[in-house]
Amino acid sequence: SNVLTGLVPVTFSNLDRLATLRLEDNSLSGTVPEEVCAVFRDTFPVFVADCRPPPEIVCECCMFCCEEGGNCECQFSNTELNFLCSEFTKSPGLEKRIVGNTMQGS
């Protein structure tokens, strides 16, 4: 948690070289802007947010959706992009939170 509040800013669309964006366990709300999703659909960074029911953020382009302070689930499981779920385990310090395609809460 970085104690972030408010909406996800459209300026995140400028982060086109980003490898990982972790927004979970903050107090963000609303919908991730389409401009952000458009960039992230092209680059497929590891994008984690609190978007599991009940969602704090509506996120069509998040790789992992989390419960507040809890587990996270890969949104690409059982799709042709399932291979991207395993890429998350390569992020330093996060491999211990992954079980299958689900990231365990800390």
Structural overview:
The protein has 106 residues and is an alpha/beta fold. The protein contains 2 helices and 9 strands. It has helices spanning 34-43, 83-87; strands spanning 5-7, 20-22, 27-31, 46-49, 57-58, 64-66, 72-74, 98-99, 102-103. The strands form 2 sheets. The chain has a 6-stranded mixed sheet. Strands 1-3-5 form a 3-stranded parallel sheet, with no helix packed on it.
Biggest sheet, in brief? Answer: 6 strands, mixed
Return the structural class.
alpha/beta
Mean pLDDT: 80
Termini Cα gap: 11 Å
CA-based shape = globular
Q: Give the low-pLDDT segments.
A: 95-100
Question: DSSP helix count?
Answer: 2
Chart the SSEs and their pairings.
Layout: E1 5-7, E2 20-22, E3 27-31, H1 34-43, E4 46-49, E5 57-58, E6 64-66, E7 72-74, H2 83-87, E8 98-99, E9 102-103
Parallel strand pairs: 1-3, 2-4, 3-5, 4-6
Antiparallel strand pairs: 6-7, 7-9, 8-9
Give a concise summary:
A hairpin with a 2-residue loop joins strand 8 and strand 9 (102-103).
Provide tags for this entry.
106 residues; three-stranded parallel beta sheet; alpha/beta; 25% strand; six-stranded mixed beta sheet; 14% helix
